[in-house]
Write a structure and sequence with these properties.
Blueprint lengths: L3 H23 L8 H24 L2 H7 E9 L4 E3 H11 E16 L2 E14 L2 E2 L5 E10 L2 E9 L4
Parallel strand pairs: 1-7
Antiparallel strand pairs: 1-2, 3-4, 4-5, 4-6, 6-7
Length: about 160
């Protein structure tokens, strides 16, 4: 019995470590993604970012709410920020996006987390202030949930 106890302990340790090792393999760093994975991630990132901007232009708060994670945060170049409820409230009353053009995408992904950096040219008004129509960088993060991809955060580097 004394010989079996160390073997059982080693087996239990190996079984406990296996899920962690498998999770690490599924969440390999974005730097090690193959060319095909990078292309698929870029395509997905573009689709998610375009969906966000289309929802802003369409002006449908209910659809935007379902696309934003409950943990959503936005940070603007003017120093203001908002959580999901605050963003939806201000979206309905004081955010106006007339049109947009996206370019310069850089997308990374590890498992259920996707980060997209890009440049946007847009005509936008926030809280009655017209923002620059020059190209401005943005960064958006998305998380995969059982109900699909949701935007977790967005940073707007376009100053008024």
């Amino acid at each position: 019995m004394r010989r079996i106890a160390p073997l059982l302990a080693a087996l239990a340790l190996a079984l406990a470590a296996a899920p962690a090792a498998a999770g690490a393999a599924q969440s390999a760093p974005a730097e090690r993604a193959t060319a095909a994975q990078q292309a698929a991630n870029l395509k997905l990132g573009k689709r998610l970012v375009n969906r966000f901007w289309a929802l802003l232009v369409e002006g449908e708060p209910a659809e935007l709410r379902s696309f934003l994670s409950p943990a959503f945060q936005v940070q603007r170049a003017n120093g203001s920020g908002a959580n999901r409820n605050q963003y939806i409230a201000s979206f309905a009353s004081s955010i106006r996006i007339a049109d947009y053009a996206l370019s310069g995408f850089k997308v990374t992904r590890t498992g259920g987390l996707l980060v997209a950096r890009y440049v946007v040219v847009t005509s936008e008004t926030i809280d009655g202030v017209a923002y620059s129509t020059r190209p401005a960088p943005r960064i958006s993060t998305f998380v995969r949930t059982p109900n699909g991809w949701r935007m977790a955060s967005h940073a707007n580097f376009n100053a008024p």
